[in-house]
Amino acid sequence: MKVYRIKKNAEFRIVYKRGRSFSNNLLVLYTYRNKKGVNRLGISISKRVGKSVERNRIKRLIKEICRLNIENIKTGYDLVFIARNLSNGKSYAEIDNSIKNLIKKAGLYNK
């Protein structure tokens, strides 16, 4: 299944305003039920997290982890991940555990 992206600022603001938030030490997850029947992914990383190389690496890791786990996530939700400063320099496994933990907290994990 394809991972659809949230790109417009207005879409991010709707998720922030109307959605629910869940957090751990590496990431914050905002979820909002959409009426599209597909999951959409948005990623927000502040410049405080690090230089562009580090920020892009974190974005790539989050996108890849979501792509591999899309079948295990309930459909019909907008998911926005916000990276915290501590996520800089973390391994794939640590970010993977963090994302799975947040999805389970939100009650969106199928397995």
UniProtKB/TrEMBL annotation:
Gene3D superfamilies: 3.30.230.10. GO terms for biological process: tRNA 5'-leader removal. Its EC number is 3.1.26.5. It catalyses: Endonucleolytic cleavage of RNA, removing 5'-extranucleotides from tRNA precursor. Keywords: Endonuclease, Hydrolase, Nuclease, RNA-binding, tRNA processing. InterPro entries: Ribosomal_Su5_D2-typ_SF, Ribsml_uS5_D2-typ_fold_subgr, RNase_P. GO terms for molecular function: 3'-tRNA processing endoribonuclease activity; ribonuclease P activity; tRNA binding. GO terms for cellular component: ribonuclease P complex. Signal peptide: none annotated. SUPFAM superfamilies: Ribosomal protein S5 domain 2-like (SSF54211). Pfam families: Ribonuclease_P. It comes from the Bacteria. RNaseP catalyzes the removal of the 5'-leader sequence from pre-tRNA to produce the mature 5'-terminus. It can also cleave other RNA substrates such as 4.5S RNA. The protein component plays an auxiliary but essential role in vivo by binding to the 5'-leader sequence and broadening the substrate specificity of the ribozyme. Belongs to the RnpA family. Consists of a catalytic RNA component (M1 or rnpB) and a protein subunit. NCBIfam families: rnpA (TIGR00188). This is Ribonuclease P protein component. The gene is rnpA.
